[in-house]
Design a protein that fits this description.
By secondary structure, the protein is α/β, with parallel strands linked by helices. Helices cover about 35% and strands about 20% of the residues. It contains nine helices and 13 strands. The longest helix has 12 residues. The protein is globular, with a radius of gyration of 18 Å.
């Protein structure tokens, strides 16, 4: 029976622009052993090729097929719900490309959807238009609900803050597709062609990677090189199957592989 991984990027493979020691060796092991994997990221701004290029600069060589983004999951979901629809987008790059690839037309008037993703070029005028469209009947979709990092000088507001503003002005609640939503967790699994009991999620954040994996029945591994720390476990009603200090500490086969 094949086994494989859904792997978060930031906090697992690297922190900002610095590779976490051992991350390259772990990926080389997966490639050598023919173990399926994909990098599962909530960042909807970067395309799979953008993600590949960032990893390559750190010495980690993968293909665009090894990346699955919240933009891809969002566009796929919308395409299923409303084929050949229209969208007004607060977002950039990978999100726009993914929507085009799934048959959506980007419009400035009377959209079927308002879609919110990462970006640094939002204006209050764009937000005002989005609010009007939603009040006129457009559906509100968020690629994810990641919060702001709350660091001075950070140029990414965090989608959660933008969505909160729109929700407050419209009285409508956004449907979020990215982690921890089961929508993205299932689509990422299908992207690598595995069954539920064949998937292990590796992530650094209890509220997204680990919660998402637990919700859909995947095995989960928390690495402590990113957002969540061991003491945070007491704040959640679930726990990962394994906790590691770093991706470098992970050895194969995993204990639950042996069991199955």
């Amino acid at each position: 029976m094949p086994k494989g991984f859904l792997i978060d990027q930031d906090g697992v493979m690297y922190v900002e622009n610095e590779m976490i020691p051992g991350a390259d060796k772990f990926i080389k092991t997966l490639q050598k052993e023919g173990i399926p994997f994909t990098f599962m990221t909530n960042n909807s701004q970067r395309s799979p090729l953008d993600a590949v290029r960032k990893l390559q600069k750190m010495g980690i060589k993968v293909d665009p097929e090894n990346v699955y983004t919240s933009a891809m999951a969002t566009a796929h979901f919308m395409g299923q719900q409303f084929p050949n629809g229209t969208a007004f987008v607060l977002g950039e790059g990978g999100l726009i490309s993914s929507l085009h690839e799934h048959g959506f037309t980007l419009v400035q008037n009377d959209p079927d959807f308002v879609v919110v993703g990462e970006g640094i070029n939002f204006t209050l005028e764009m937000v005002r238009k989005a609010i009007d469209f939603i009040l006129e009947g457009a559906k509100l979709i968020a690629t994810n609900l990641d919060p702001s990092p709350r660091k001075a000088g950070w140029n990414n507001l965090g989608i959660a803050s933008v969505v909160a503003m729109i929700e407050a002005a419209t009285g409508k609640t956004a449907f979020s597709v990215g982690k921890p939503s089961p929508v993205m967790m299932r689509q990422a699994r299908k992207h690598i062609g595995l069954a539920t009991d064949e998937v292990t999620v590796i992530g650094d954040t209890l509220a997204t990677d680990i919660q998402g994996g637990v919700q859909v029945g995947y095995n989960t591994i928390l690495t402590l090189t990113g957002m969540s720390k061991r003491e945070d476990l007491s704040n959640f009603p679930f726990k990962p199957d394994m906790i590691i200090n770093s991706i470098a500490d992970l050895t194969l086969p995993l204990p639950w592989w042996e069991e199955k």
